Structure formats: structure tokens, C-alpha cells
Amino acid sequence: MPYQKKYLPLILGVAIAAGIFIGGKLNFADSPQRLFTKNSKKDKLNRLIDYIDYDYVDDVNTDSIVDVTVNGILENLDPHSVYIPKEDMQRVSDNMKGDFVGIGIQFYTYKDSIAVIRTTEGGPSEKAGIKSGDRIVMANGDSLFGDKLNDGELLKKLKGTINSKVDLKVFRKGEPELLDFKLKRGKIPLKSVDAAYMLTDELGYIKINRFAESTYREFKKGLDELQSLGATEIALDLRDNPGGFLDIAVQIVDEFLEEDKLILFTKNKRGNTEKSFATDEGDFEDGKIYVLIDENSASASEIVAGALQDNDKGTIVGRRSYGKGLVQHEMDLGDGSAVRLTVSRYYTPTGRSIQRPYKKGHKDYYDEYFERIQSGELLDSEKIQVVDSLKYTTPKGKVVYGGGGIIPDVFVPIDNTMHNETLTFLQRRGFIGYFVFEELEKSRNIYQDVTKQDFIDSFEVDDDMVFAFQDYINVRTASKITFVAYHEEVKQYLKATLADQLYGNDAYQEILNQRDIMIDEVIELSVGEE
């Protein structure tokens, strides 16, 4: 007995160690024969990284080596399996969650300070009294001005934990001294529904920019409001929508399809299939639906378009969509980073996969997308290449194709006046936004009593503003730009950007839609079907 007591701690220690070792090796797919075998592929990678860490002649950041290694592995998979470094995870998570914690402002890093473009309705800044045009110069004693600050550093100082306090010092034009504001950070929504308004007495319009956690709630709110205004038809705009959560797309489709209609099914490498069906919860099953797509509509956007097209519900309008039919699952890697790995393919109700081929590698995959553009496909539906072996038929006999995106029922070519290279360049570089901000700074008060709807319906940009913008651009760029060929289009962008900074993105979208040929086509289709 004394002998047993003496060695009891040792025996227990060995048992615990063995348990930890075995537990570390166990996973649900392991057989008893594999329990104590080594995975030479994993060991090789770990040994190499350790070898570099301990013996390499120079100091090396092995974290960066791991990042490169992970990206190298994913390069050999499909184009949509991606690595998200830990420094990007918060931004990516916020975007897909649909909100973040902050003070609720849209801002420019204008010249050397933070210039408030607009406060978020109901957010901490609006409640505290911060106004458009204010310059935030300090937060909790830290300077927020100077030419060395970038947007990332500024956001870190303005974001924080929920209900945390921040003291701001603000310069306001016309005030002799800096103003003090004390705020509590709160949840700030990242809108995924850009606009919801009536195009005609019966036709409502909803634009979705991505499928985030909050998208269905935003969409349903917009749909309910439009129905209360008399909408019996909906134009659902999914142009430039790269996708997002599959389940959110299914919820939105469910609003339009009758109970038990197949929305999509997914299949993994083991052949396991999961089907999603419509429920009896849809509030717009009897209404007409038009789905607007283009070459940048991908993933969840294509799920919506494909489900409705294959069920002979509504009309798909626009240009062939991107062609992404893969489903990703996010896996936390334990250090704040993550991998989004493709785990299955999705198929539309007729059984078609709309994923573009990627067997020749990532470069070839993305080059094929640009080849579509160069072929003239965006201008002529006859240039769309289809594969006869990937032909499918809907219940009512309509022919649809798999293998590379959703082909619309009604083709609308790209508008090269509103989407020309010069205007796209000026928009993306921020020139239009900066110019409009400076114009507002000269005379912001004149818009004080102008309602959003009055501005949309009645305000006109005059020629003087267009010429002033032209001079503004030519001072800041090497090449001389004139707007002779698209004078009216520039007016439309200036008016829309003014509306965005005064009233919000929904006003911006509504104004741009006034010169949108795809919107015009939908309105004509709606009138023609009455």
C-alpha cells in the first residue's frame, strides 16, 4: 500500500499526459488505426517554420511567413477560398454583421483634418449636436489633424467599445473657439439597402448592395413601406452586389415564392445535398418582380435571380451575372485570422451550377471575366457564349443555361454615357465628392430648409457649377478634361453627390436612377404588362 501511495502522483501524471495527448489527436473522422499516426504534411510545414524561427541567419517575422504559406495553399484551390489576416478581420466582420461601434459620422480626411460630411440619423454625433462641415480635431486628448494621419488610424481613435465615452474638440466655421462634445459610442448601422422608393404608382424599387446579417430586416422594412404606398410590383436592384450570406438570400427569395417551391440546393464533396424551400411566410407572392443584374452581381445575388428565374417567377433584367456558384464557410484560425473555405456548390432549382470554370488557375479565371467585356458582351446579347450541354428548362418551358452566370430574360446593354471611363475615374478618386463638399462649405445654409423630395424633384445643377468642376479637376490632374460630350451626365453626378452629402445615399441613388436606362426598361416592361 505505501508503495502504491508513493507512486500514485506519478501514475496520475502519466495518465493525464496520455489523456491530453490522445485528446489532441482525436477528431470525429479519426479511426483507431489513425490515432497515433503522424500527418507528415502538417509535420513538414510545422518543422520548416520552427527551423526558420530558431536557426535562420536573419531575424524573420514568422507570422508573415505563415500568412504567405496560407495564401500559397489557397492559391491552389478555387478563386473564392480566401485568407483574412487578423488586421482585416474586424472590418470584414463589421461589414457582414451590418453594424459597428462608433460615433456615427461620415467623414473625409479633408486637407489635414476630419471633416464631417453627414451624421448618422439617431447616432451619438447627431444627438450631441455635431453638424455637417464640422472639423473634429481632437478625441480624448489625441490630435486628429496633420498630413501623416491615415483613415485607418483615425477610425481606431473614433471607434471603440459599446457605451465607451469619448471627448471631442470640434472646429466649427464662424465659432471663435473650439467646441467640446461628450459622446457615448453606440452601434452604427452599415446599410445594405441603399434605397426603397416608388418608381410609379404601382412599381416599387429596392436596391441591395450586399447580403449581410441585417439585410433581410432592412429589405423587409422597405418592402412593407412600399406595399403600404400601393406597390404591386417590385424592381429589386442587385447590380454591383457581390453577395454575402446564403441564408439571407433564401429569406428574401421566400418573400416572392409560394410554399414548397425549391429555392436552391447545395452539394458537398461527399455528395451530401441540402435543399432550401420557400415557406408560407412570403408577403409578396402575388406581386410581380423584376430583378436587375449586371456583370458584377455575384453569389447570393445570383441565388436570388436564379431561384426566381427557374421558378418562372418575375423577369430578370440586365446583363449576364458574374458566375459564382460556390459556398464558403469561415473557420477561425485561433490568432484572430480566418479562412473562408469553399465547402460546397449551390445549384438553382432546375439543377444548374452557374459557377464559371477555374481549372486553369486564378489568373485565367479572372482574365475570362475581362474577356467577356472585351468581346462586346456588355453591349450585345448575341455575344454571350453558352454551352448547349448546360441547357436546362424551367417548368413553363423557358430555356436557361448553367456554366457561367445568370443570363437575363431581358437584355439591357451598358450605358457608356453614364458609365464612361472619365466619370468612373473622377468618382473613384473622390474628385466629385471633394468638389461638392467645398461647394457646400461656401453656401451650406441655403439648403437648410430644402426637403429631400423638393431637392430631388426641383433642384437643377447649372452650367456654372459644371465649368467650376472642370476647372477644379484641371488644377489637380495632369491631363486637361472637358465635359463637352457628357455635360448632362456630369450635372446628374454633381446633383446626386450633393444629395448624398445633404440627405443620404438613398437620395443619391434616386437621382442617378433618373438617367438609368435599365430602370427605364423596367418601367416600360411594367407599363406594357398592365
Outline the structure in words.
It is a single chain. 39% of the residues lie in helices and 20% in strands. By secondary structure, the chain is of the alpha+beta class. It folds into three domains: 99-189, PDZ domain (Pdz3 Domain, Roll); 193-415, Alpha-Beta Complex (2-enoyl-CoA Hydratase, Chain A, domain 1); 421-514, no CATH class. The longest helix has 24 residues, at 2-25.
Topology, element by element:
Elements: H1 2-25, H2 40-55, H3 62-75, E1 82-84, H4 86-97, E2 99-102, E3 105-110, E4 113-119, H5 124-128, E5 135-139, E6 142-143, H6 151-158, E7 165-171, E8 179-184, E9 186-189, E10 193-198, E11 203-208, H7 215-228, E12 233-237, H8 246-254, E13 262-268, E14 273-277, E15 288-293, H9 300-310, E16 315-318, E17 326-332, E18 338-347, H10 362-374, E19 391-393, E20 399-401, E21 410-411, H11 421-428, H12 431-443, H13 452-458, H14 463-476, H15 487-503, H16 505-513, H17 517-528
Parallel strand pairs: 11-12, 12-15, 15-16, 16-21
Antiparallel strand pairs: 1-18, 2-9, 3-4, 4-5, 5-6, 5-7, 7-8, 10-11, 13-14, 13-18, 17-18, 19-20
Helix pairs in contact: 7-8, 8-9, 12-15, 15-16
The biggest beta sheet is recorded as: 6 strands, antiparallel
Helical run tally: 17
Strand content: 15-25%
N- to C-terminal distance: 96 Å
- Into which percent range does the helicity of residues fall? 25-40%
The first-level CATH class of the largest domain is given as Alpha Beta
Gyration radius from CA atoms, angstroms:
28 Å
What is the CATH-assigned architecture of the largest domain? Alpha-Beta Complex
